[in-house]
Amino acid sequence: MKAVQTETTGSIEALRLTDLPEPQAGPGEVLIRVEAAAVNFMDLMRVKGLPFDVPTPLPFVPGAEVSGTVVALGEGVESLEVGARVFGASGQLLNGGWAELTTARAAGLAPIPAGMAAEQAAGLTVAGAGAAIALIEAARTAPGETVFVPAAGGGFGGYAVQIAKALGATVIAGAGTPQKRQVALDLGADHAVDYRTPGWTEAITELTGGTGADVVLEGLGPQHVGESLSILAPFGRVVVYGVLPGYGKIVDVDALAALVNDPSQAKSVTGFNVTHWLTHRPQASLTAVGRLLGWIADGTVTGPRITSLPLAEAAHALTLLERGENTGKTVLIP
Ligand SMILES: NC(=O)c1ccc[n+]([C@@H]2O[C@H](COP(=O)([O-])OP(=O)(O)OC[C@H]3O[C@@H](n4cnc5c(N)ncnc54)[C@H](OP(=O)(O)O)[C@@H]3O)[C@@H](O)[C@H]2O)c1
């Protein structure tokens, strides 16, 4: 079968389209004929050899989530049948999806909702479910609140804009280019600001009449967290869901001290990871995902724009993500 693999970590250029033996479904797993495989930041981090919370065994076939058709069942699998069309996490270690065939734990898969294209289903777990669980469970977003969404022209951010709107919030989108700010407004954001230029927090202060945002999703990194804290309203929550290159290693100590030294403001910062929520808080997570699927079914959430590229263009897709030149969600088609 065709797959994209790297023998070493450290460089996107090391990725090769190659022929590999077909994988076998182990106990509790199924074999999936992949229809689409998402390109996520975690694939980039692992290919580049950056710190990641599960091991990256070499040689490595990236691809943490896929959609496709079940073609074989491993020992003990009763929840799925051959022929079922499914989406969800691939591999034992969130890997192996950039291939014609991949294995996945049956417990980490769900049926592709009726009417949904395989391309959208492929990116629904990390970006879609991630944004839903972050906003509904981690941030406890309430109607009438103001939510700031960074990288709103991207995958996670695109879902977050529409989910926050569905929850009855006012949404301020952050995006690095005029084109991406327009994308965010088209998705339903009430306002869009350039959040990568110094002084961006002033725009948020102005848009909220000096109060600040109730929920701030923070996906850039330590240096940006301090700025996010500075635009937080009383009782506000910063949900840190991502760390990107170029945003330092140290959180602004004064910003944290302000939070701790004035507890009457009741502000908080929390970390977030979709895999950890799905694994350790499955009931709450699946309830949030159920609400997302309901909004998708009734058209409230359409999701970010999807760009489909052939598997052979995996390195190009990762390069765009690394440069921040992607818009919406990219998926690979074997
Ligand atoms: N915790 C979780 O469960 C979870 C789930 C999904 C994603 N994430 C994290 O969220 C972040 C975005 O991941 P994603 O896969 O969803 O991609 P994405 O939403 O498409 O985000 C990429 C966007 O981030 C912005 N960006 C800002 N600084 C950047 C930099 N130094 N390098 C590259 N892009 C930069 C760019 O948009 P602008 O030009 O508009 O700034 C770029 O288009 C990553 O840190 C990822 O690990 C976390």
TrEMBL record:
One of its GO terms (molecular function) is mRNA 3'-UTR AU-rich region binding. Residues 1-20 are annotated as: Disordered. Keywords: NADP, Oxidoreductase. Residues 1-11 have a biased composition (Polar residues). InterPro entries: ADH-like_C, ADH-like_N, ER, GroES-like_sf, NAD(P)-bd_dom_sf. GO terms for cellular component: cytosol. Residues 10-332 form the Enoyl reductase (ER) domain. Gene3D superfamilies: Medium-chain alcohol dehydrogenases, catalytic domain, NAD(P)-binding Rossmann-like Domain. This is NADPH quinone oxidoreductase.
